[in-house]
Design brief:
Shape: elongated
Order of helices and strands: HHEEEEEEEHEEEEHEHEHHHHH
Radius of gyration: 31 Å
Number of helices: 10
């Protein structure tokens, strides 16, 4: 029985090979798109989870080159204060400028998740030590010396005391976090020369309006020429799913999938060309159009199954070679996705044959073939 089905399906080898190749591309495209969407969705969940319930951001512009940052959080008793935004330093090991975050004041649990180690400023003796915590991606650039990990920023060596990240997404993987009392003179000078800063005040339990007033007053006391624009937010804030999908080239996967669907229709043309004589003979012997189409549908379904088996084998091999290649969770969603892919492919592949079979005249067809 199995051999009979195999001979029937793979009798037209070229069509079978092209169909399987097309379906493989469909599987990798769709599961790639699902993988991108799942990553974007998880990243969005982490963004919401790691932000404070109450937030106030201050956009500061100051051309005076005065140090409006170091002491701006003095007297703040509620919430955490972070220098974030576009503040950047030169990462020697990466040979590029990278955005950083500097903890200016910590009054409650700070919204970072650690894989190992700790955050700068978490100990009283951290002052003047030149230490940093890195996201998992940034940590790859650290070098080892005397059993410790180090990186270089703005020409100064910093010890890595913590690795930031969580297992569900890469939301924290690109973080570079300092403490204001543990940065070198070069970095402080570089930050002063950037003239534009973003200070974020955040708390999950306290009212931070008074903290904002204190910071505002401290900055204006240091530099009366500073321009400050502030914004208060609560709740989840604006979603970043669309921007993440755009960065991950989600639309490219969709375009490739559309191309694959068009390929299914092209395959159906070859299917008819190669099976025209067979269809004509079956019609001559009294086979109904529905029966002929059921036979073609069955053969296409077997090709879909064969394609999925080949896909699983290739996927397992690539997963062994490259561990982080295309994560697929084999669950109900995966099963539904596979079924939908195959149903759509089968329908598109037999639409044209259905039209031809309904129009075919056995005697004329056989004469044309002869």
């Amino acid at each position: 029985m199995g051999k009979k089905i195999f001979r029937s399906v793979f009798r037209y080898k070229l069509t079978a090979i092209f169909f399987i190749l097309g379906q493989l591309l469909v599987y990798f495209t769709i599961f790639g798109a699902l993988n991108i969407y799942n990553k974007a969705f998880q990243k969005e969940e982490d963004r919401v989870r790691f932000q404070y319930s109450n937030r106030i951001s201050l956009e500061i512009t100051d051309n005076s080159k005065k140090d409006v940052i170091t002491n701006c959080s003095e007297g703040v008793a509620d919430g955490n204060v972070i220098l974030a935004g576009k503040t950047n330093v030169f990462f020697e090991e990466k040979k590029s400028s990278n955005r950083i975050e500097i903890i200016l004041k910590q009054n409650e649990d700070i919204n970072y998740e650690l894989v190992e180690g700790r955050l700068p400023g978490s100990r009283y003796d951290d002052i003047d030590k030149k230490i940093v915590a890195l996201g998992r991606y940034q940590y790859k650039y650290a070098y080892e010396e005397d059993g410790k990990k180090y990186v270089t920023f703005d020409g100064e060596k910093y010890e890595v005391v913590g690795v930031i990240g969580n297992k569900d997404s890469d939301y924290l993987d690109y973080k570079i976090v300092f403490y204001i009392g543990s940065i070198g003179d070069n970095m402080l000078r570089n930050i002063r020369e950037q003239y534009a800063y973003t200070i974020e005040i955040g708390s999950n339990s306290k009212d931070i309006n008074n903290s904002y007033k204190i910071i505002y007053k401290n900055i204006m006391k240091e530099s009366r020429y500073a321009l400050i624009e502030s914004k208060s937010e609560k709740g989840e804030g604006a979603s970043t799913i669309n921007s993440t999908l755009y960065k991950e080239k989600f639309s490219v996967n969709i375009l490739v999938y559309i191309f694959c669907l068009l390929n299914c229709m092209l395959i159906s043309e070859f299917l008819i060309i190669q099976r025209k004589k067979e269809i004509a003979i079956r019609s001559t012997y009294g086979f109904s159009n529905i029966r002929i189409l059921m036979k073609i549908t069955g053969d296409v379904s077997v090709l879909c199954l064969a394609s999925f088996v080949v896909f699983i084998v290739i996927y397992m091999i690539l997963k062994i070679v490259k561990h982080n290649f295309l994560t697929i969770s084999f669950n109900k969603l995966t099963l539904i996705t596979v079924l939908l892919i195959n149903v759509i492919s089968i329908v598109l592949t037999i639409v044209y044959p259905a039209f031809i079979v309904s129009k075919i005249q056995p005697a004329v067809a056989l004469k044309d073939i002869e």
